[in-house]
Amino acid sequence: MKTNQISVNKSFGGKQLKYSHQSDVLSCEMTFSIYLPPQAEQQSVPLIYWLSGLTCTDDNFFQKAGAQRYAANAGVAIICPDTSPRGEDVPDDPEAAYDFGLGAGFYVNATQKPWAKHYQMYSYITKELPALLAASDLPVQTDNASIMGHSMGGHGALTIALKNPGKYKAVSAFAPICSPLNCPWGEKALSNYIGTNKDDWADYDSCALIAKAQEKLPILIDQGDADDFLTEQLKPELLQAACDKAEHPLTLRMQPGYDHSYFFIASFIGEHIKYHAQFLN
User: What is the pTM of this model?
Assistant: First the structure.
């Protein structure tokens, strides 16, 4: 599978790169961005997947989070894929709403028409993208990886880690959608992508997955208490309750005064990268 380099910029002694490739899983051209720390000039390095939230592309995180400095210090690479398939043939929300369709793939495998042909983001993140990296000349250790994300991407990181025991060394999230079964964003996305049977939604709900997790991978979550989406959409208290019941290790840090923005992410991204690095190095 061929990748095409779009851009390269030096950053904190390493390289910020952007690539495109044809995705067989998503039936469209995709882009991803990756930061390689300076250590990657000499050897392959561990890899952290970052999954972004609603409306984002692979650019938002690297342009706003300030993660490169911390990744360079820790000697880890960070890869950020796009949040949905793209292209003229890819269907979007009929009303062009921000919370479904383009920019809102929810990291699930859609089963319903017309979404199923392209919206296979779960398989893209867990299978096709790792295989693409492993076959490339990028000096990253695809078998020594962890995963984190924000909002919709926090939901993606948690569910993917819980459904793939042994695949990731660590998982964390910023303001994740903790239970798509119980919030408007999740209800809209899963009913359209997966269908109206809520039993099928549980396969993409962190709270439901915690109860049957085969691996007690510790979870780190930062959540701002001034987040406008906290009460209606994010509901970290549901995840806390599920983890307590299942005796699953969770560190939930409520951060006073912080909202849902990248200002919040930039404030704590260094701590998250340090958290991941201790499991990867």
Answer: 0.97
